[in-house]
Amino acid sequence: MKKMMIYHDIGVSEKSFSWLIKKIPPIFSSKIVNACDIQNGILATADIFLIGGGADLPYCERLNGRGNALIRHFVATGGVYVGICAGAYYGSSWVDFIGEGERICGARELAFFAGTARGCLPELTQNHLYAPEHEQSQAWLRLPEFPEELFYYHGGCTFEPVSRAENVLAHYPTGAPAVISGHFGAGNYLLSGVHFEARPHFALWAEIAALCG
């Protein structure tokens, strides 16, 4: 059984976190960790490290420097990083995010995807920009690769340029990449702009298990 460590600290969405702890399939064991745990080396005992939805600037505040260096080392030496929504922005080299009344742009230290995580994507929400409690900026989407499934979208990103995405696992209805994966050193990463943890999307959980080798 693969051991997954789930990040829970300042900035993590309680909705996303609640989905994660309820919906992780039994092919994984799970443990909740925070920034202090990471800085103390806990990832040495993990197979997978997952950062879910929320806000990525607090992730930077808690993990920049030593924390991110340890996460990069964990993946480079064979671990798997999974980023969902804010965790996907955080796992990219550059963030370019526009929400209602805000814009966040800047480099990120993990840089597993050597490109830009760009969002939000108002073309998916009838031109409504992301707002935390704004229902009109949320949507349930069908992705072409998984036509029988519904995926929750709320402020997530796409990945640019697509030529830097090693594997595109799913696309938005617009054709833009929604879920990507790739190698980093001896390890792997999977980044998702949609909240696949909101429902039991076993195909993507199986993909994560396969990345562990």
What does this molecule look like?
There is one protein chain. The chain has 6 helices and 13 strands. It has helices at 14-23, 35-39, 56-63, 66-76, 86-90, 202-211, and strands at 2-7, 28-33, 48-51, 80-84, 92-99, 102-107, 113-119, 139-143, 146-153, 158-160, 167-171, 177-184, 187-192. The strands form 3 sheets. Strands 2-1-3-4-13-12-11 form a 7-stranded mixed β-sheet. The mean pLDDT is 95.
**How do the helices and strands follow one another from N- to C-terminus?**
EHEHEHHEHEEEEEEEEEH
When the domains are counted, the total is 1
DSSP E strands, number: 13
Main beta-sheet strand count, sense and barrel state:
7 strands, mixed
**Mean pLDDT level:** 95
The end-to-end span amounts to: 12 Å
Rounded to the nearest angstrom, the radius of gyration is 16 Å
Q: CATH superfamily assignment?
A: Class I glutamine amidotransferase (GATase) domain
CATH topology: Rossmann fold
- Give the amount of beta strand, in percent: 35-45%
Low-pLDDT windows of residues? none
Helix content: 10-25%
Strand order of the largest sheet: 2-1-3-4-13-12-11
Q: Per the principal axes of the C-alpha atoms, what is the gross shape?
A: globular
Classified by CATH, the class is Alpha Beta
Would you identify the CATH architecture? Answer: 3-Layer(aba) Sandwich
- Total DSSP helices: 6
What structural class results from the helix and strand content? Answer: alpha/beta
